[in-house]
Description:
Elements: E1 21-27, H1 35-40, H2 48-52, E2 61-65, H3 74-85, E3 92-97, E4 113-116, E5 123-125, H4 126-133, E6 139-143, H5 144-149, H6 165-169, E7 182-184, H7 191-205, H8 221-224, H9 235-239, H10 267-270, H11 306-333, E8 357-359, E9 362-364
Parallel strand pairs: 1-2, 1-3, 3-6, 6-7
Antiparallel strand pairs: 4-5, 8-9
The structure holds iron/sulfur cluster (2 copies).
One iron/sulfur cluster binds next to helix 9.
Amino acid sequence: MPSRPAPFPVKKSSAASPVKEVHIVWLTAGLSCDGDSVSVTNAEQPSIEDVILGAIPGLPKVYLHNPVLDYDVGEGFMKYFYQAERGELDPFVLVVEGSIPNENIKSEGYWAAQGTDHKTGQPITTCEWIDRLAPKALAVVAAGTCATYGGIHAMAGNPTGCMGLADYLGWNWRSKAGLPIVNVPGCPVQPDNFMETITYLLFQVAGMAPLIPLDDKLRPTWLFGKTVHEGCDRAAYYEQDDFGIEYGTPKCLVKIGCWGPVVNCNVTKRGWMRGIGGCPNVGGICIGCTMPGFPDMFMPFMDEPSGARFSTAALTMYGKMIRALRAITNRTVNGEPEWRRPGRELITGYQPRAGAYRSQSGLRAA
Ligand code: SF4
Ligand code: SF4
């Protein structure tokens, strides 16, 4: 992706941020299960508590407004959305969770909404909230695969015509600070992936980090630059043509539906919580939940991916031969060298230097 000029001056010191306060306005009223909000409560690198309670040096004071996690309810909660809309909550980062329905394709009612329009008494649709808040936000983040690319709700045959945030706002959309939408996909989002990204953006808002590096699907490159397969505990089995055909095996799961070799996701390296988990590492197939083509392009789940038939067929000869040769070498290197035994002769091959002498307890240098 071509590099863009940083929208904020980048400070090199760890001095306090010139931006004292930032709000995170988190809209969960897309089509979703709120699973991303729940998932993020498991983050530790950093945790939500670390960010909100000011445990991270240099970060501005952060206020979180999320309907799943907030103590406030009703108008007490909604007032922050109205303030953000009026420009009274500045700066703020807008987080969108859930896919964006198409409100133009129906004759009555609405697909998704949050709060009430005080002028009309009618629900404010999710699309209206995005239209009102996105132009005022310093940065906009799509959390989870529903918000990033549409996800489960946007699969073939759905009645809502829903889509991801970049489909709705436009892939070239920029915030008032010149930032593209930042996509953190996952179904749900991996907790630390999200918190690391939001922390990066908060540092950027504070002028203390360069422009966030994104790929052409607007994902942070350091999180989504590698495949599941490249970090998988089972990759050595794949290489050796050693495939499981049922669950509960430690072997490679590609024959029972793992898409890991072609999916951008870091959970096999990062784990899910405290470094533990990460679908194939703990016995689950990768169904490509971080990908724009999810779920349609990965179905039917649990069938061997068609491309895998070819690539694993090509491995058959090579893998079997390598496995046999490695078994021989493995037996060899499991043996100790022959000189490691008691006896009166030194048989290690050691050659004493001139002037060395023998004592009763062995060979000593003079
Ligand atoms: S289980 Fe999946 S990700 Fe792991 S080695 Fe096999 S194909 Fe690759
Ligand atoms: S390994 Fe696959 S299924 Fe698991 S989180 Fe990553 S993309 Fe989703």
